[in-house]
């Protein structure tokens, strides 16, 4: 399967900070979610646990009414991409991370082409989802596209 | 193709594809898979290049990526290595380093005057007369060097990539292949790196005619090809070995940075030439080169061969030659050997001369015969090929670079690894193992041990499989009274040159190298260092270990700069409003990683565009994108405490819904950042930083939160939020069209913050006035930034609103005397010097820098002042950083300067000695051209000193004239 990159919508991306987020996890049937793991919800929706007091949620469910005191929700406008095919081959040219260390379902934060990026590591044959600060979105998209088009390593494989 | 053989079992050729290429203007044919040198040799071309200094004819020597006398030049690339570069259709190459042509090289004249050009002559000559030195320099530069770089080259950057594995194996010869397979069988990821396009190494050229090895070859190659845990990187070499087992692997596609837990070095050995008279004649080559030529390229090295040998490998080479249909005139054994190969040679009727010495090659343009001594008799033989098999030197660069050590083994007459760093394993011939079965066994145990090491399991001791008899001659050097016995083929160094260097006192291995340049040519001593060490050791009466060796540093082979450079990753940030700026003809400038509109082009000159933007803000309204400001959310139980500790002003007493200037200093009291803080709730603040400090400020604050053990969370929202500043007397009217919020001064006073909707989107509004007008800073989720911006521009059309850029903002704030941290302050400026003592609340119990500022308050030696000129011509306007001079001494510098269209004059800020701070003081400013102009200190702000425009009760009652 050849490598392909496409932009995804980051609507409904929410960053939750604060104590006692168990109820939010429970609401998404993700109480047993481990740290730095994510769970797919409906299509293009997920919940990721980034810390004891930190969640990243991409969901159409409105949480604004269910937040307790001391819990803060910030809307995120991350640039999000879907990379299908042998995404590890492309990543090996822009990211030093050893993907052998991770497994499907991991939520990974790494530097890609000099930009901080988060990734949802997929099951085999599924596309990789990655996101970054929206202000770097244009740069990351053009950099990955250029690499896809010009890299002799990728075009050799 | 005169010397082409019938197909060989392991040849690399695709005989169906005939390739035509051009060499020195003549067209030749070869097969796909041929390298340049082999294809030329097949066509009977034996002079492949000219030597570096004397321009002597040179042919093949190693055919192993260090044939430095067979370097070629194409239109685009210099110094193409003929022994490893495949021919291509339409390829056109010439020999490097010739004056005229390869056949008729005028550079050969140098050989005639060679006796006047001993080693190091250029260190001692040309000093006088001094005026002639530039001419000598020019001549030497013309004569020296190899290929020519085309200065019209096109920039080329090759990508780099990372590869992670558990075990990296360098070298895919028999030992390396066995190591890789064994390691992979333990379940670890293996990366097998080899410089050739086909794995197999010496198994395929030194043992090509060993039928017993067929099954083993098949097992290894098939096993590697089919093993999912093995990744083969062929046509690649390890250019450098760095800490934590990082390998820089150069490939034709670019550099691969390989990270391994353990490394097996199976790089083998370099065959070393013998040193004797005319050992550089085309036709004299290493025996392994001849075997490679036959096995890989199916080319006869010669028609009639003599083999000079000091080991069993020479006998095997002689048998290979015979098998290839070459007449083997004799084997000249430098001693007396007893092994299976000798018996086989005898059985095949080959003539063997034992204890041969004093070899001399003869011939004019190429080898025609040899003369040698045997048992006191001088003998001569006619031949066109002399194959040298007198010894080996370890290809030890990876081990040396990893921090390993070698010591000389007198039994093997070879340097062997004596100390290996943790995680590094050596096997095969580099480890002194020569028997082919032992080499495979040695590889297997190295592969197993590397896999165990990588898996954090105990590593057992290895079996010693090293050879028990020498495979190298202890001194394969025969001096001849007429000289021309070359030690270094790169640099044209003869035995007499090294002896001369030693005699002059350069008798340390490092000194000898630098004086004589041995090992400093493109092959980096791969076939000269060992003989150089032997010569020095003998001259000084030392052992090889006492003599030592030079340092092997990266790069192992010359590595293209385009590979080292890699692709350029230069992150660039665009704000949410970037597309508007593009549409509106913004001229962009870089601000850290950001692209910001410097000004918007209208077809007028830059200065007029900026002045027009300034006028728009002063007379009606302007809108600037300030999304690049750092934006931090600070929330939690200790949020107020943190804010108090971070900033010089008290923040804990700020009311909810208020904003406050936020000045940050470091421990020494130096201004490092500023911004605006607002309070959303008792436990929730939001603070901005300067454009370029957001990441640094965020990191520092995070560190402090941990150090101080505060219960607070800090979130860097810089990229998630867009921000814009709507400023000008009409800004309130414009904003009123888009929001239901009561914007009256009573309901929304100066320095207040409100959360509201603008154009239907939730925003935070802050009434601040960096540019000195009624203004609103609007912060909004980046997803809505462009929509809010466009709504404001639309609503402002009736007021001829204009977007303004960084340059207009700089001028507007200068008129107000507001500083820019980093421009009006430097790495030593404290708030008192910046005339911002008002922003320091020393009564607070603690904040970063407080102890320093408490002392600095009374120690002020310089201060920021405003100035204007008494009279100044357009061409005499100083620049930022021009110096203020007092009594001939430096007394300050200009930090900001600009022409104020509103005030109709140049104004500026300068950091000056306190003695010059009084209003009315005359300043002497030195221009960049050295001329002086006069200015005087004036009060700041220059514009609207009472700040009436920022807090108008009714903005319509105030006019420009009343405040300017």
Q: Can you give me a brief rundown of this structure?
A:
With 157 residues, chain A is an alpha+beta fold. Helices cover 21% and strands 34% of the residues of chain A. The longest helix of chain A is centred in the last third of the chain and has 14 residues, at 137-150.
- Which structural class best describes the helix and strand composition of chain B? alpha+beta
CATH architecture descriptor name of the largest domain in chain A: 2-Layer Sandwich
**Which outline of chain B best applies?**
elongated
| Second-tier CATH architecture of the largest domain in chain B | 3-Layer(bba) Sandwich
Number of domains of chain A: 2
Residues in helix, % of chain B: 10-25%
The end-to-end distance of chain B, rounded to whole angstroms, is: 92 Å
- Please summarize the sheet with the most strands of chain B: 6 strands, mixed
Tell me the major beta sheet of chain A: 5 strands, antiparallel
In CATH's first tier, which class of the largest domain in chain A applies? Alpha Beta
Question: How many helix segments of chain B?
Answer: 26
Count of discrete structural domains of chain B: 7
Order of helices and strands of chain A: EEHEEEEEHEEEHH
Order of strands across the widest beta sheet of chain A? 1-7-10-9-8
Question: What order do the helices and strands come in, and which of them pair?
Answer:
The complex is a heterodimer of chains A (157) and B (964).
Chain A: E1 4-8, E2 13-17, H1 22-27, E3 37-40, E4 46-51, E5 54-58, E6 72-76, E7 79-84, H2 87-94, E8 107-112, E9 115-120, E10 128-132, H3 137-150, H4 152-156
Antiparallel strand pairs in A: 1-7, 2-5, 2-6, 3-4, 4-5, 7-10, 8-9, 9-10
Chain B: E1 14-23, E2 26-32, H1 36-42, E3 49-50, E4 57-58, E5 71-73, E6 80-81, E7 92-95, H2 109-112, H3 121-124, H4 133-143, E8 160-164, E9 167-170, H5 174-185, E10 190-193, H6 202-205, H7 214-226, E11 230-233, E12 237-242, E13 246-251, E14 254-259, E15 262-265, E16 269-271, E17 284-286, H8 287-297, E18 304-309, H9 312-323, E19 327-333, H10 340-347, E20 352-353, E21 356-362, E22 369-374, E23 377-382, E24 385-389, E25 392-394, H11 397-402, E26 405-409, E27 414-419, E28 424-426, H12 436-454, E29 486-488, E30 493-494, H13 495-503, H14 509-516, H15 529-540, H16 544-547, H17 561-565, H18 578-583, E31 586-591, E32 594-600, H19 606-619, E33 622-625, E34 630-635, H20 639-646, E35 659-665, E36 671-681, E37 684-689, H21 694-708, E38 713-716, E39 721-727, H22 731-736, E40 753-758, E41 761-766, E42 775-781, H23 782-795, E43 802-803, H24 806-815, H25 850-856, E44 862-869, E45 883-886, E46 889-900, E47 905-913, E48 922-926, E49 932-938, H26 960-963
Parallel strand pairs in B: 1-7, 8-14, 9-10, 9-15, 10-11, 15-28, 17-24, 18-19, 18-24, 19-20, 33-43
Antiparallel strand pairs in B: 1-2, 3-4, 5-6, 5-7, 12-13, 13-14, 16-25, 21-22, 22-23, 26-27, 29-30, 31-32, 33-39, 34-37, 34-38, 35-36, 36-37, 39-42, 40-41, 41-42, 44-47, 44-49, 45-46, 45-48, 46-47, 48-49
């Amino acid at each position: 399967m050849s490598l392909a990159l496409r932009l995804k919508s980051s609507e409904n991306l929410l960053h939750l900070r604060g104590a006692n987020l168990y109820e939010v996890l429970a609401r998404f049937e993700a109480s047993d979610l481990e740290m730095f793991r994510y769970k797919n919800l409906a299509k293009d929706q997920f919940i990721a646990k980034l810390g004891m007091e930190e969640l990243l949620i991409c969901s159409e469910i409105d949480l604004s009414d269910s937040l307790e005191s001391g819990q803060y929700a910030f809307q995120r406008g991350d640039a999000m991409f879907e990379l299908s095919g042998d995404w590890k081959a492309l990543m090996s040219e822009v990211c030093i991370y050893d993907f052998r260390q991770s497994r499907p379902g991991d939520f990974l934060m790494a530097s890609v082409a000099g930009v901080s990026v988060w990734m949802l590591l997929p099951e085999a044959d599924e596309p990789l989802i990655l996101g970054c600060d929206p202000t770097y979105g244009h740069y990351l998209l053009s950099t990955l596209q250029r690499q896809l088009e010009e890299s002799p390593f990728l075009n050799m494989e | 193709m005169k010397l082409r053989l019938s197909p060989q079992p392991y040849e690399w050729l695709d005989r169906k594809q005939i390739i035509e290429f051009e060499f020195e203007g003549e067209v030749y044919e070869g097969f796909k898979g041929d390298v340049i040198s082999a294809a030329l040799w097949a066509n009977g071309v034996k002079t492949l290049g000219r030597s570096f200094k004397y321009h002597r004819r040179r042919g093949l020597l190693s055919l192993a990526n260090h044939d430095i006398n067979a370097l070629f030049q194409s239109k685009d690339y210099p110094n193409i290595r003929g022994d490893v570069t495949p021919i291509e259709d339409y390829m056109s190459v010439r020999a490097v380093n010739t004056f005229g042509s390869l056949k008729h090289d005028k550079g050969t004249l140098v050989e005639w005057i060679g006796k006047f050009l001993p080693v190091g002559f250029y260190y001692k000559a040309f000093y006088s007369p001094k005026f002639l030195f530039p001419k000598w320099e020019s001549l030497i530069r013309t004569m020296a060097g190899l290929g020519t770089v085309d200065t019209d080259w096109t920039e080329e950057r090759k990508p780099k990539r990372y590869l992670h594995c558990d075990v990296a194996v360098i070298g895919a010869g028999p030992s390396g292949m066995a190591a890789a397979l064994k390691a992979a069988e333990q379940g670890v990821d293996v990366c097998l790196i080899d410089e050739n396009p086909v794995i197999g190494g010496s198994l395929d050229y030194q043992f090509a005619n060993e039928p017993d090895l067929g099954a083993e070859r098949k097992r290894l190659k098939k096993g590697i090809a089919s093993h999912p845990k093995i990744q083969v990187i062929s046509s690649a070499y390890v250019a450098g070995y760095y800490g934590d087992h990082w390998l820089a692997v150069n490939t034709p596609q670019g550099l691969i940075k390989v990270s391994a837990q353990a490394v097996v070095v199976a790089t083998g050995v370099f065959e070393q030439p013998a040193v004797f008279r005319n050992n550089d004649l085309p036709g004299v080559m290493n025996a392994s080169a001849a075997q490679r030529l036959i096995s890989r390229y199916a080319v006869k090295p010669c028609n009639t061969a003599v083999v000079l040998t000091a080991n069993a490998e020479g006998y095997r080479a002689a048998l290979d030659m015979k098998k290839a249909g070459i007449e083997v005139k004799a084997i000249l054994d430098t001693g007396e050997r007893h092994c299976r190969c000798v018996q086989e040679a005898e059985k095949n009727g080959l003539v063997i001369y034992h204890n041969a010495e004093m070899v001399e090659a003869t011939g004019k343009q190429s080898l025609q015969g040899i003369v040698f001594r045997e048992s006191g008799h001088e003998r001569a033989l006619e031949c066109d090929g002399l194959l040298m098999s007198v010894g080996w030197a370890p290809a030890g660069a990876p081990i040396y670079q990893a921090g390993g050590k070698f010591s000389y083994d007198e039994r093997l007459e070879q340097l062997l690894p004596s100390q290996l760093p943790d995680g590094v394993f050596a096997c095969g011939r580099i480890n002194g193992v020569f028997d082919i079965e032992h080499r495979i066994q040695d590889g297997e145990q190295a592969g197993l041990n590397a896999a165990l090491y990588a898996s954090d399991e105990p590593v057992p001791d290895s079996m010693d499989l090293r050879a028990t008899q020498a495979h190298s001659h202890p001194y394969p050097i025969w001096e001849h009274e007429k000289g021309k016995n070359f030690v270094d083929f790169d640099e044209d160094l003869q035995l007499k040159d090294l002896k001369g260097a030693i005699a002059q006192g350069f008798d340390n291995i490092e000194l000898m190298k630098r004086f004589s340049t041995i090992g400093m040519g493109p092959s980096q001593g791969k076939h000269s260092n060992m003989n150089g060490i032997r010569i020095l050791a003998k001259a000084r009466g030392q052992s090889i270990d006492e003599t030592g060796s030079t340092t092997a540093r990266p790069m192992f082979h010359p590595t293209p700069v385009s590979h080292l450079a890699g692709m350029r990753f230069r992150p660039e940030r665009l704000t949410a409003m970037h597309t508007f700026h593009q549409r509106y003809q913004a001229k962009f400038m870089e601000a850290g990683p950001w692209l910001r509109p410097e000004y918007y082009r209208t077809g007028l000159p830059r200065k007029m565009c900026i002045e027009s933007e300034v006028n728009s803000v002063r007379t009606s309204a302007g809108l600037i994108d300030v999304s690049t400001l750092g934006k931090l959310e600070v929330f939690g139980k200790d949020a107020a405490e943190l804010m108090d500790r971070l900033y010089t002003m008290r923040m804990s007493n700020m009311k909810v819904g208020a904003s406050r200037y936020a000045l940050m200093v470091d421990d020494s009291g130096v201004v490092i950042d500023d911004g605006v803080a607002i309070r959303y709730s008792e436990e929730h603040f939001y603070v901005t930083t300067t454009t370029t400090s957001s990441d640094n400020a965020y990191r520092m604050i995070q560190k402090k939160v941990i150090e101080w053990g505060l219960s607070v969370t800090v979130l860097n929202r810089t990229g998630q939020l867009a921000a814009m500043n709507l400023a000008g007397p009409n800004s309130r009217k414009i904003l009123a069209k888009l929001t239901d919020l009561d914007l009256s001064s009573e309901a929304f006073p100066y320095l207040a913050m409100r959360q509201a909707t603008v154009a239907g989107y939730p925003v935070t509004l802050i009434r601040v006035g960096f540019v000195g007008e009624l203004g609103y800073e609007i912060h909004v989720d980046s997803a809505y930034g462009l929509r809010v911006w466009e709504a404001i521009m639309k609503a402002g059309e009736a007021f001829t609103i204009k977007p303004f850029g960084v340059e207009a903002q700089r001028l507007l704030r200068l008129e107000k005397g507001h500083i820019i941290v980093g421009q009006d302050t430097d790495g030593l400026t404290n708030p008192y010097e910046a005339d911002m003592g008002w922003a320091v609340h020393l009564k607070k119990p603690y904040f970063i820098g407080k102890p320093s500022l408490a002392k600095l308050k009374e120690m002020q030696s310089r201060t920021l002042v405003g100035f204007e000129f008494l009279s100044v011509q357009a061409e005499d306007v100083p620049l930022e950083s021009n110096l203020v001079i007092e009594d001939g001494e430096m007394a300050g510098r200009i930090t900001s300067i600009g022409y104020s269209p509103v005030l109709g004059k140049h104004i500026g800020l300068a950091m000056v000695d306190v003695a010059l701070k009084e209003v009315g003081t005359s300043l002497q400013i030195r221009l960049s051209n050295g001329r002086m102009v006069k200015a005087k200190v004036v009060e700041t702000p220059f514009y609207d000193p009472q700040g009436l425009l920022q807090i108008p009760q009714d903005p319509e009652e105030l006019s420009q004239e009343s405040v300017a």
